[in-house]
């Protein structure tokens, strides 16, 4: 389903649509936005090849998806989500373990501790299993050159339309609790409510937000 919006980006039409894993150039554009947006983050450290396989997995997994925002043919933002986060990670391991391993070799040599980070990342979905069904907004990024133009909000609006709230209790996301005022304001502006604060194994303070 494609939803069209009148954008403030030079008054041209912005479209939001689902991405297929066969859209290789589009996924490569999404990875580029990720690399430019999430500088210093662990997944960014894992490199382009790793991210490419990760976002393709969102496309291929039946209970997950990848949205892209385009403006006049240019990729300007993306959003990755899953209605079965644990199942998504099992799917990644089952279908792309060798590829993830191959693209991780360089990162492991640069930082040996990356191995344990990856293991913990793949174990995390099993640790947060809940009785209710929910959708995880796991990644959202906008081209840094056009931030604060409404693209992120449009992506979230489309996700809200996709989610069947008769089936899922809420949409959830996690974001840094410290030095992250911009993202926190963005999520709250889009209707997300803070559920809790928690600390990761690495001592990183995080907020969980929900939209219901």
SSE diagram, text form:
Elements: E1 3-6, E2 13-18, H1 24-37, H2 42-46, H3 48-60, E3 64-71, E4 74-82, H4 85-110, H5 114-127, E5 135-142, H6 151-162, E6 171-176, H7 181-189, E7 193-199, E8 205-211
Parallel strand pairs: 5-6
Antiparallel strand pairs: 1-2, 2-3, 3-4, 4-5, 6-8, 7-8
Helix pairs in contact: 1-3, 3-4, 4-5
Features:
single chain; 8-stranded mixed beta sheet; 212 residues; alpha+beta
Which of globular, elongated, flat, extended, rod-shaped describes the shape? globular
- Low-confidence sequence ranges: 1-8
What share of residues are in beta strands?
A: 25-35%
Helix proportion range: 40-55%
Largest sheet: 8 strands, mixed
How much is the average pLDDT?
Answer: 87
Beginning-to-end CA distance, first to last residue: 22 Å
| Helix-strand string | EEHHHEEHHEHEHEE
Q: What is the strand tally?
A: 8
What does this entry show, briefly?
It contains seven helices and eight strands, in the order ββαααββααβαβαββ.
Could you characterize the architecture of this molecule?
44% of the residues lie in helices and 26% in strands. The chain contains seven helices and eight strands, in the order E-E-H-H-H-E-E-H-H-E-H-E-H-E-E. The protein has helices spanning 24-37, 42-46, 48-60, 85-110, 114-127, 151-162, 181-189; strands at 3-6, 13-18, 64-71, 74-82, 135-142, 171-176, 193-199, 205-211. The longest helix has 26 residues, at 85-110. The chain is α+β, with helices and mostly antiparallel strands. The chain has an eight-stranded mixed sheet, with helices on both faces. The model is unreliable at 1-8 (pLDDT under 50). The two termini are 22 Å apart.
